[in-house]
Amino acid sequence: MNDTSAPGIALRDEPARPGLSTRPPDVHISVVICAYTADRWVVMREACRAVQEQLAHADELIVVIDHNEELLHRATSQLDGARVVPNSQTRGLSGARNSGVAASAQGVVVFLDDDAVPRAGWLESIRSLFADDAVAVVGTRVIPKWQGSRAPSWFPEEFGWVVGCGYRGQPTSRAAIRNPIGASMAIRRTALLSAGGFTSEVGRVGALPVGCEETEFCIRLSEQHPELAVIFTPDAAVDHFVPVERQTLRYFLRRCFHEGRSKRAVARLRGKAQALSAEKHYVKVTLPAALARGVSPRSILREPASPARACAVLAGLTATVWGYVTAGSTYGSSAR
Questions:
Q1: Helices (H), the chain
Q2: Are 161 and 183 in contact (CB under 8 A)?
Q3: The whole model's pTM is what?
Q4: Residue 77's CATH number
């Protein structure tokens, strides 16, 4: 259950090194954007432009296309300034990220979702933190950019993770964390090689709303190298586009259900204590506070939708727990 071996993902032709403090004097960065559908083409081009404006000398932008030949051709011909490569591994986000790492040449790999656009100063804020050799992983703020300008009135801020964004209960200042939000995160390349990259046993495949590949990786990395730091910084931020189809109660509950299934898969791979370490505080402190706010007379007078948000908190928690309980050992086959 607590096996710390790597998932057997070959990333590049160089071996993992026992010591991970081998960065060059200057921190150079490979930004990796993974894409599987042309539906996000407009936002992805905006993301690429924003990244290119922030690249320093020797930095690079790599776009990985996940088993979509038409999109691969389009990206290769139209994304000037980016190196476009196919996902040469198993279909899904884990395989695509590993393909990006294999193609990368710099000491820090920054992963950016194809529908997330960096704000000014994003890359430099990340770069500055990797001047410390003890830092292996950096997570940033991920701010929802709702199609239609605002979140549904019933949507609780505590569930921002449902749409791949930050949420109430996260740190608001620089802090040690278990794992970052995958939409915008940076990992030292030697750490990726040493731990073996992302496992395809968890993680999103196409539109199926599963996840936790970065959670499993960070737990595995911490098991192998407890001296390395995983930190959150509020100084770097991206705007993560949330389309209308992800603003429905149906998607909310489906995503919560599959989060529970994903957490069960992580527990199977890395152990229950580590897989649920951050969730204990979230369930015991963050969600009860959300419920109390939702039903308080003052909140209801100020925001009539507060009770609806409280109901969504209960529904989301129930769906997540149900997904965890019912996942059993069938996650890997059913997720694909």
A1: 41-54, 69-78, 93-103, 122-129, 189-195, 213-224, 249-270, 272-275, 277-281, 287-295, 297-302, 306-327, 331-334
A2: no
A3: 0.88
A4: 3.90.550.10
Question: How many angstroms separate the CA atoms of 271 and 276, rounded?
Answer: 9
Domain range for 127 is 29-247
Query: Residue for token digits 């040469």?
Result: 88
**Span of 69-78, 250-259, 326-335 with lowest mean pLDDT:** 326-335
pLDDT 10s digits, 258-307: 999 999 989 988 888 887 888 999 999 999 999 999 999 988 989 999 99
Which of 202, 183, 203, 180 is closest to 191 using CA atoms?
Answer: 180
**Integer Cα distance of 113 and 98 in angstroms:** 14
The rounded percent of the chain whose pLDDT value lies above 70 is 88
Pick the closest to residue 160 from 336, 319, 313, 39 (CA basis). 313
Give a yes or no: residue 267 inside a domain. no
